[in-house]
Amino acid sequence: MGKILGIDLGTTNSCMAVIEAGTPKVIPNAEGNRTTPSVVAFTKEGQMIVGEPAKRQSISNPEGTVASIKRKMGTKEKVRIGNKEYTPEEISAFILQKMKRDAENYLGETIKEAVITVPAYFNNSQREATKAAGEIAGLEVKRIINEPTASCLAYGLDKIKEDQTILVYDLGGGTFDVSILDVGEGVFEVVATSGDTHLGGDDWDKKIMDYLIEEFKKETGVDISKDKMALQRLKDASEKAKIELSSVMQTEINLPYITADSSGPKHLVKTLTRTKFEALTEDLLKRTEEPITQALKDAKLEPENIDKILLVGGATRMPAVRELVRRYFAKDPRKDINPDECVAMGAAIQGGVLGGEVRDILLLDVTPLSLGVETKGALFTRVIDRNTTIPCEKSKIFTTAEDYQTSVDINILQGERPLAKDNHSLGRFTLSGIPPAPMGIPQIEVTFKIDANGIMHVTAKDLATKKDASITISGSATLKDEEIEKMKKEAEKFAKEDEKLKELIETRNKADHIIHVTERTIKDLGDKVTEEEKERINKAKEKLKGVLSSENIQEINSAIEELNNEVYKVSSRLYQAKSEEKKEEENKGEEDKKDQK
Amino acid sequence: MKKSKKKKSDEKDKIIKEKDKIIENNLNQMKKMQADFINFKNRIEKEKEEFVKYANRELMLKLLDVLDNLERASQTEDEGIKLIYKQFKDILEKEGLEEIDTTGKFDPYYHEVIAVENSDCEEGKIIEVLQKGYLLNNKVLRHSKVKICKR
């Protein structure tokens, strides 16, 4: 059975998605873009073009170009092009056909079925027409769903247990819709809708354009509103400025050689601040407020009765829109899903449910924080990184920190901070019965295994004796959402200090190790080392021991180097002496040793 | 006695059937995931190739603004600017940039109509280029913005 295509058939733009490995994925069109303009055109030669190319020729061929056909769905009105007539269903079908074709090319498989979204206020004949359009395009329409419902699905609101009231604020390219839904136990009921069918992001661009034309006229006396080329550059620059102002506080509009007069070429250079932009577009924003009030009134609700607000449509990226919603409801709106793609993703999820592809068990979770164990010097060593999709399994090999250590204590930690004490301990256990050996020799494999339900098994195994010990940690022992957020924030806040502390501890660990190895080497070599050498090494060693507790990493490092130097001098002298005796054998032995490591 | 036994075995059959159904569902699910995964892997490979080829797109697109402005500036008398324009254009061309041809008729896959003119000319012919369009490695990076003839 093939995939079910989720299609957001919009007034200005359309978007499509499918379920892949249990999650929705937006499919780019043949031109490589994630949304397709809902424009169809017929050239004089009788060729039909859809999407971006159709939009690009619309000025030269207005009588052969059809845009915003969605506004006519469900009516008997026909579109006359040349001497042929098309129903709104047929025009929509051309758009759907292109999307179907592009999706098939992208996925490499045939698409036969689809879920298509419509505005919540669409009546029965409008829905029937949409369905018919799908059938004409060669798609079996498995279901027609409401756009706000699709948004709720994209946000996973079908999973909530208790009843909630959701408001969807959908500001698209050319239309604005407000819907209020009652959601509970996977049932969605639209209780009120309102909106403005001729208000969208394009109006915001237009405001910037008008402002720039006016300012330019004031400064230079030249009116560029009649110059087609200048206008086109202005239009592009205005849209770009609007988009930029969503993330920065000010942007520069830089259009050199925009025009020329007797005094020479003229450049348009203007800094636009977000504040100015918001002042220019205040009336537009205000116009989105009335439909909200209307919808609430129709639903007999107060702003505080709304549990969640979803922002849909590209224009909701504007901070002013978010601020308006926040102020109106005294609540933060949800905006984590790409607002251009939200509806199509919801349609794909509905398709996935119908096709049996999306089921609770398949909505895979991720580990919100890193998981690992405590290691020498009270450091936290990660085994599973955060955001790893579960179920998963990962192992790491550890060793002992001291000579003849016969047991290891495994402390399981969750968090992002480098020091063990700053992370959350999930549990601990001991693996004992390790045969006595010098430090660094035993190999302890620690395996973290998390199943789909979030239950974690941690096993420590001595690879020499195959002896193991383990612990099971249930999902409930892990942290709550707020605690996770808090820990993530703290990790960011202390990142720099933590890094330094970690480095210090690692340096101390290194020093410890070198002192230990030195002592062992001297002992092993016995009288091959002269008293004088021993004294020098001891001196360097004592010095290192002395600075071990210092906070100064550089100081410790230089003491390490000093000791290393002394040891190196001795070993190279001995090596030379030995190699003169039996050169080849020694070489071979040395290499073997390296391989083992 | 017999009846209750039969009832029991009926129940068992029912349970077995239910379990069979679950098994079948899970198997289908697994097959789908497997297929999804293989397709996904293949596509990622393809996208990786494309990515390497077109990784510069975003940067190149931004640089086109500078190229346009240098071109406009080079229309003036300044010799230095002319040289800089040429140098800059040469660099971009070595990276796969190519100007879109506008000598023929309008083609919506390469050009965008900004204006039309009704004069004594051949229908659909490009009369004026308002903004040059470019290809990057044979894929349209920016469409030519043109004025065409319409009678």
Features:
heterodimer, A: 597 residues, alpha+beta, 6-stranded mixed beta sheet, 4-stranded mixed beta sheet, elongated, disordered C terminus, B: 151 residues, 3-stranded antiparallel beta sheet, 3-stranded mixed beta sheet, 6 strands
Molecular structure report:
The complex is a heterodimer of chains A (597) and B (151). Chain A is 39% helix and 26% strand. Chain A is α+β, with helices and mostly antiparallel strands. In chain A, β10, α3 (124-136) and β11 form a beta-alpha-beta unit. Chain A is elongated and about 110 Å long. In chain B, α2 (57-74) runs antiparallel to α3 (79-94). A 3-stranded antiparallel sheet of chain B has the order 1-4-5. Chain B has a 3-stranded mixed sheet with strand order 2-6-3, with no helix packed on it. Chain B is an alpha+beta fold. Chain B is elongated and about 105 Å long. At the A-B interface, α1 and α6 of A face α1, α2, β2 and β6 of B.
The shape of chain A, in one word, is elongated
Structural class of chain B: alpha+beta
Q: What oligomerization state is this entry in?
A: heterodimer
- What is the residue-averaged pLDDT of chain A? 86
Strand order of the largest sheet of chain B: 1-4-5
By DSSP, the count of extended strands of chain A is 25
Q: What is the average of the pLDDT values of chain B? A: 86
Instruction: State the low-pLDDT regions of chain B, or none.
Output: none
Describe the main β-sheet of chain A briefly: 6 strands, mixed
The biggest chain-chain interface is: A-B, 29 and 34 residues
Helical residue percent of chain A? 25-40%
Tell how many strands the DSSP assignment of chain B holds. Answer: 6
Radius of gyration from the alpha-carbon trace of chain B, in angstroms: 31 Å
**Largest sheet data of chain B:** 3 strands, antiparallel
Rg of chain A, Å, rounded: 34 Å
From the N-terminal CA to the C-terminal CA of chain B, the straight-line distance is 95 Å
Low-confidence stretches of chain A: 360-364, 590-597
